[in-house]
Amino acid sequence: MKRVVWGSVAFGLAAALGAGIPAAGAAPAPLVFMLDWFPNPDHVPLFAAQQEGWFTQEGLRVTLQIPANTDDPLKLAAAGRVDVAVNYEPNVIIARAQGLPVRSIGVLVGQPLITVMFLKSSGIRSPRDLVGRRVGFAVTGFADAMVDQMMHSAGAGAAGVRMVNVGFDLVPALLSHNVDAVVGAYRNYERVQIELQGQAAGTFEPEKYGVPPFYELVLITSDQGLARHREALARFVRAVGRGIAFTLRNPEAAFAAYVRANPTMKLDDELNRRSFRMTLPTYARSQVQAAARWREFDLWLAAHKVIPRAVPVDTLYTNLSP
Questions:
Q1: Phi and psi dihedrals of 161, rounded to 5?
Q2: The CATH number of 8-111+215-315 is which of 3.40.190.10, 3.30.70.1620, 3.90.226.10, 3.30.530.20?
Q3: At 70, is the secondary structure helix, strand, or coil?
Q4: pLDDT digits (tens, 9 = 90+) for 247-276
Q5: How far is CA 105 from CA 209, 227, 314, in A?
Q6: Which of 229, 267, 268, 302 sits at 20 to 30 Å (Cα–Cα) from 293?
Q7: How far apart are CA 64 and CA 84, in angstroms?
């Protein structure tokens, strides 16, 4: 699951015609956009929008960047070095609690993908079975809180769980039996990786064990960036929404666009096809974010001491789409 840099490419993404589009002949508005990871099925709607030309129709000139590591998108967005980036609801709240001026302006994946994952051959059937076991993680804080919540919801304490930092090598650590389970593996990607290795994977999904549902992938910008480029960012979000709608209506065409946009990566394989099928139901159906969802998860992070106190919800997101 290690994030890798694949380089920077410019792509002219575009969206539906509508209010706010510059007059004919106006120079396109430049935006620098960073993914959260290397191109993968989570991003299919973005590349579908690219191939259909919708960002260009919105009067945007978008330069896509791939992060060198997982910290880059949020930090660079906060510093204004990228205009918009893909990130995660938990990260936005944690960053805001630390004083970083980032907020969500749109949604790519509207429900959790993260899980606690294990091999079915391990005999693990319930979170209670994690007592006395080694659970690998990549990033502390949220991972510990999630395991603690899931254990208590299953009627066990988390004190008997041994948390082991394995970095982003979650799947290798699990397949090599260095750990008994991992927290942070995605149900739509790492699970497929494990199954393609001939193993049966099981998952505990956090929203079924007391962790409030949250937006897995959101579009973030800085407060200053929003003030400066609000109209262009609104057009960008509108384009993403159009890309998602197209993907839901025409999944094969959208997947083909994703493959076509990344010709050197050989993405037309079983891993990407199966992962895309699992991701398809999770793409956001609306770009209108719910205050209640942000508030509930914000309070949950505070209650579990991941952040010192709840963050004012109106600083966490802005709806740019009606």
A1: -95, 130
A2: 3.40.190.10
A3: coil
A4: 999 999 999 999 999 999 999 999 999 999
A5: 28, 12, 12
A6: 229
A7: 10
